What does this fold into?
Amino acid sequence: MGVVYKAEDLTLQRTVALKSSPRSPLQAPRPVPTRPRQRELRRCSSIPNICPVYEIGESDGHTFIAMGYLEGRSLKDLLSGGPLPVDEA
It folds into this structure.
């Protein structure tokens, strides 16, 4: 489970979603994803209808993924009224 923030890419002047994996102060920093994992993320980001991945990096011992920001309701909000109709799902 990760924490997602709405952020601004200052270089390209666009809104992005910045996902960071939470960790306790006692845990060692997580390494930046390995090359096979980076290849997997690149492949996934190139598939139509999948959120684009702009960058994978590390800052202050936290690995992060910068990806396209999609405006809308959360899945939790969507499901709060019960199951979605098939055409909406």
Notes: DSSP finds two helices and four strands in the chain. The CA atoms of residues 5 and 18 lie 5 Å apart.
